Amino acid sequence: MTMNKKQGKIRVLVVDDSAFMRKAISHILNSDQEIQVIDTAKNGVEAIEKAQRLKPDVITMDINMPVMDGLECLRRLQAIIRIPVIMLSSYTKEGASATMQALDEGAMDFVAKPGNTFEITRDDMKEEIIRKVKVCKNLKFPEISEKSTEPMKKTNSMYGNKVKSIVAIGTSTGGPKALQEVIPLIPPDVESAFLVVQHMPAGFTKSLAERLDSMSGVNVKEAEDNEVIKNAHVYIAPGDYHMTIKKTGDSLYRIKLTKDPPVEGHRPSVDVMMESVSDSGVSNIVAVIMTGMGKDGTKGIVKLKNKNNAHVIAQDESSCVVFGMPRVAISTGLVDSIVPLNQIAKEIMKTVGVHK
Q1: Which of 111, 137, 107 is nearest to 125 (CA)?
Q2: How distant is the alpha carbon of residue 47 from its chain centre?
């Protein structure tokens, strides 16, 4: 393969132990006029050597490889060269868990490989891979500031199911890592429930919830249909389901999951979740828009502000991996607080309060 840099093209190194996958992903990426695959590697050792020598704009990286796997390669690359990495992961529980770890350790995004390897050539898979490579070319490595406090230890909430306030959080690219700087800093005696929409495919949201739960004082779980919403709990919308809430009497609220059509390409949708919270009858609402591409959540905050006078928080540009969703939200003029990532938990707590 040529090593010459073609003017203006996004230069990609494809790393995968499967010859078929290397060829298929290269073909997909080269089919786009803005992208050029400059080389491939079949394991992490090759990837590190070629990344240092060729200095690609983006790397696609399989997680499971011989000699040196994708996670170890990612760790070593992070220490020597700053290149955006997109992980390719299987839909298995182990694959989802490894993906969460990779995102935690610096991968910018991931693509879930279909169960049948040959389905990588499906049109929707092609579009996703091309789109994510183009997005990653322009991603910056955010300045990760020190956390303001240590994560809380779990205690049993004494406030039961009478939810007085709801915090609705929407995020996308960069979100899994960003949520680790917010959710673990929420005190376990908070008299609020938290709803989170993170754009992610089915299967991966459960691993995200388990990872966040392991480091948080509040209880974090993947939301289940019809479950009662409780204080000091964080409910993450399952991949491929919209998450809404409904009041069921005496200040009790339940989760309602639906397979309604995607909204502007998203299911779950931040807008759907936030508009549902607006209509729920909860009196004290905080809406948070964090790192992510696009504008999902902006319609939601407009309704929450105009109908419920919700307190709206947006993550600032300097701490975002992608300043898309927060930028569009801020442009409405309805955002009350624009804060760096390490101040979001504190800003939430200033609004909902905590009982000690």
Answers
A1: 111
A2: 26
Give the domains, in start order, of the chain with CATH numbers.
10-137 (3.40.50.2300), 165-352 (3.40.50.180)
List b or e across 147-176, with b for residues whose CB sees 16 or more CB atoms inside 10 angstroms: eeeebbeeeebeeeeebebbbbbbbbbbbb
CB 301 within 8 A of CB 334: yes
Q: Quickly list H helices, the chain.
A: 19-30, 44-54, 70-80, 93-104, 123-137, 175-179, 204-214, 270-278, 298-308, 325-331, 344-352
Q: pLDDT by residue (tens digit) across 91-122?
A: 778 889 999 999 988 899 999 988 787 788 88
Residues 6+ apart with CB under 8 A from 187: 152, 217, 218, 349, 354, 356
| Residue range 40-64, pLDDT digits in tens | 999 999 999 999 999 999 999 999 8
Question: From CA 27, how far away is CA 8, in angstroms rounded?
Answer: 19
Could you give the residue numbers annotated as active site? 172, 199, 296
List residues bridging with 313 in a β-sheet.
288, 337
| 3-state helix, strand and coil shares in percent for the chain, rounded to the nearest 5 | 35, 25, 40
